[in-house]
């Protein structure tokens, strides 16, 4: 029954997904343009002489130089969509500005199933991937979510949408379209009540999977037999060695972490609860930044499909909570008073509706 329902959800939202208007070397692998001849909207260069850690302009453990190549296209959306439900206290007003950050790697895709290099090729989830996304949603169904960021690829967007359908607040995730003025105008919501029961979903190419270049679409086992296991292992698991005409993890991290710093971290600092549905390498890059991992530590980091990871952002620091085993896991809510209060409010609202 759950699978049938989720299939309907997939059909309904797949026609609404959009691609970011930002032009870049990597984003254009999705837009049928030769990716080597296109400008990058904004780049960040890590000073490798200091450290191979992913770094921040606002942190001291490494140094980042911003390259002012072109003006970055900012994400535009209606801030009224970001307000939590009137039944839940607006945590952005809390002095501590504590916020939850949920990271989810998309569920199994059709090319995961076929053992093919996927990269920036836009393929959907398998039935197993749909089930993984639904299960991920159940695990976070009692954790507040005010805004969702996804990559521009459908497997991440499907995961985000299917997960939020399981949330107890029953808010409707709405993909925001900023690719043109017409798209913005035509997708406006004019009911304040409807806005209060919606969650904005912001797609961006910067959170896309690393671009695997000439390996995309190739079978992983056959590629190892052709080029040698050691060579393929270096392409897949090294930090700074890219596959032919593709991205290394380091290159993926530069765009993903820069976007996180500029667009997501300020939301957390304002007390907004954020969910990110993305990919193995873009999420590994962000976790490298959050946990201050070295380049040697991050290459051994493995993320399972459809398993949410919870962080608490408080007083400018990220505290790793791990993965909720289920929506009733006591430890999640014992970790902070605010999460416990949120869950208690959900229980009270549920009792009122049932009475």
Automatic annotation (TrEMBL):
<feature type="active site" description="Tele-phosphohistidine intermediate">
    <location>
        <position position="106"/>
    </location>
</feature>
<feature type="binding site">
    <location>
        <begin position="105"/>
        <end position="112"/>
    </location>
    <ligand>
        <name>substrate</name>
    </ligand>
</feature>
<dbReference type="Pfam" id="PF00300">
    <property type="entry name" value="His_Phos_1"/>
</dbReference>
<dbReference type="InterPro" id="IPR001345">
    <property type="entry name" value="PG/BPGM_mutase_AS"/>
</dbReference>
<protein>
    <recommendedName>
        <fullName>phosphoglycerate mutase (2,3-diphosphoglycerate-dependent)</fullName>
        <ecNumber>5.4.2.11</ecNumber>
    </recommendedName>
</protein>
<keyword id="KW-0413">Isomerase</keyword>
<feature type="binding site">
    <location>
        <begin position="236"/>
        <end position="237"/>
    </location>
    <ligand>
        <name>substrate</name>
    </ligand>
</feature>
<feature type="site" description="Transition state stabilizer">
    <location>
        <position position="279"/>
    </location>
</feature>
<feature type="binding site">
    <location>
        <begin position="118"/>
        <end position="119"/>
    </location>
    <ligand>
        <name>substrate</name>
    </ligand>
</feature>
<dbReference type="InterPro" id="IPR029033">
    <property type="entry name" value="His_PPase_superfam"/>
</dbReference>
<feature type="binding site">
    <location>
        <begin position="209"/>
        <end position="212"/>
    </location>
    <ligand>
        <name>substrate</name>
    </ligand>
</feature>
<dbReference type="GO" id="GO:0006096">
    <property type="term" value="P:glycolytic process"/>
</dbReference>
<dbReference type="InterPro" id="IPR013078">
    <property type="entry name" value="His_Pase_superF_clade-1"/>
</dbReference>
<comment type="similarity">
    <text>Belongs to the phosphoglycerate mutase family. BPG-dependent PGAM subfamily.</text>
</comment>
<feature type="active site" description="Proton donor/acceptor">
    <location>
        <position position="209"/>
    </location>
</feature>
<keyword id="KW-0324">Glycolysis</keyword>
<dbReference type="InterPro" id="IPR005952">
    <property type="entry name" value="Phosphogly_mut1"/>
</dbReference>
<feature type="binding site">
    <location>
        <begin position="280"/>
        <end position="281"/>
    </location>
    <ligand>
        <name>substrate</name>
    </ligand>
</feature>
<feature type="binding site">
    <location>
        <position position="155"/>
    </location>
    <ligand>
        <name>substrate</name>
    </ligand>
</feature>
<dbReference type="GO" id="GO:0004619">
    <property type="term" value="F:phosphoglycerate mutase activity"/>
</dbReference>
<feature type="binding site">
    <location>
        <position position="220"/>
    </location>
    <ligand>
        <name>substrate</name>
    </ligand>
</feature>
């Amino acid at each position: 029954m759950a699978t049938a329902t989720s299939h309907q959800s997939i059909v309904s939202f797949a026609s609404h997904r959009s691609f970011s208007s930002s032009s870049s070397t990597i984003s254009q692998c999705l837009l049928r343009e030769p990716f080597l001849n296109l400008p990058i909207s904004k780049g960040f260069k890590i000073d490798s002489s200091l450290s191979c850690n992913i770094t921040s302009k606002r942190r001291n453990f490494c140094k980042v130089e911003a390259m002012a190549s072109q003006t970055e296209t900012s994400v535009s959306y209606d801030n009224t969509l970001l307000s939590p439900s009137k039944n839940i206290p607006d945590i952005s007003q809390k002095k501590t500005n504590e916020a939850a950050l949920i990271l989810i790697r998309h569920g199994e895709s059709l090319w995961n199933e076929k053992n093919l290099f996927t990269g920036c090729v836009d393929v959907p989830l398998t039935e197993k991937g749909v089930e993984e996304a639904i299960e991920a949603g159940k695990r976070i169904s009692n954790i507040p979510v005010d805004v969702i960021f996804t990559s521009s690829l459908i497997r991440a967007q499907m995961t985000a949408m299917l997960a939020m359908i399981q949330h107890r607040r029953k808010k409707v995730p709405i993909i925001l379209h900023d690719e043109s003025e017409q798209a913005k105008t035509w997708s406006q919501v004019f009911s304040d009540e409807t806005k209060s029961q919606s969650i904005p979903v912001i797609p961006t190419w910067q959170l896309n999977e690393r671009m695997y270049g000439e390996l995309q679409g190739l079978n992983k086992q056959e590629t190892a037999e052709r080029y040698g296991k050691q060579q393929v292992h270096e392409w897949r698991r090294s930090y700074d060695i890219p596959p032919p005409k593709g991205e290394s993890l380091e290159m993926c991290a530069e765009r993903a972490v820069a976007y996180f710093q500029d667009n997501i971290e300020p939301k957390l600092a304002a007390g907004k609860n954020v969910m990110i549905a993305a990919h193995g390498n873009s999420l590994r890059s962000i976790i490298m930044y959050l946990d201050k991992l070295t380049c040697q530590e991050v290459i051994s980091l493995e993320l399972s499909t459809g398993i949410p990871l919870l962080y608490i952002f408080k007083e400018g620091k990220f505290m790793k909570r791990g993965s909720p085993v289920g929506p009733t896991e006591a430890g999640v809510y014992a970790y902070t008073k605010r999460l416990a209060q949120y869950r208690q409010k959900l229980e009270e609202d549920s009792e009122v509706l049932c009475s």
